[in-house]
Amino acid sequence: MATMNGWGNASLRPMLIQCSYCDTHTLSTQRGTWELAPEGDDEFSPTLYTLVSCDKCRAPQLLVQTAQMEAGNVWGWTDPIREWPSDSSGPLSPSIPMAIAREMREARACFGAKLYTATAVMVRRTLEGMCVDQGTRKKALFDALGELRDADKIEGRLFDWAQALRVLGNQGAHFSKDAVSREDARDALDLAEALLDYIYVFTAKYAEFQLRRSTPPGGSPAGSS
Fold this sequence. Notes:
Elements lengths: L5 E3 L6 E5 L4 E13 L10 E8 L5 E11 L3 E4 L3 E4 L13 H15 L3 H18 L7 H10 L5 H18 L8 H33 L11
Antiparallel strand pairs: 1-3, 2-3, 3-4, 4-5, 5-6, 5-7
Helix pairs in contact: 1-2, 1-5, 2-3, 2-4, 2-5, 3-4, 4-5
């Protein structure tokens, strides 16, 4: 699979989408593609963005696919997931590790398909991946989240939110007469994305800000030799 950074010609092959305006599955027409491939020290998988329009209402939609190894050691693209317009807060930051972003996108896809119990389960998997990536030693999610709090990687309110998501994920993972509601699944997505942004985006930006503030113009950080 050859990848490149730039626009490509859209094929005439229709694509099945979940239209956010029609609120139904319908065919769409491809309008253009954009392939984004890593360069230099970039650590993300090649990504394909496809602009489509609903054949029923003509509303635009942006789909995203990432490269993956398929059977026979052949590269291909994952199934397309709607990136915009999104029921979520917006596109995921490229600072979020690829494997964790994949779990989060699948959670979004479950929500878009109205599979709210599956959404809760995928949010829990996202939190588990985040804890592992942050180097927690505890296997139980409750204890792992506590490690992040004790290490000042998440604050008290975020810890409380994360615990609520963990409990909701438990509800989704085990049979219960009480189904996960759309509102709970929606909140789970929003809070999970807030956690990911806090750890992988805001914390890094704050560290960069602190470093820049401590570095004289044209010099090294204060205190270095």
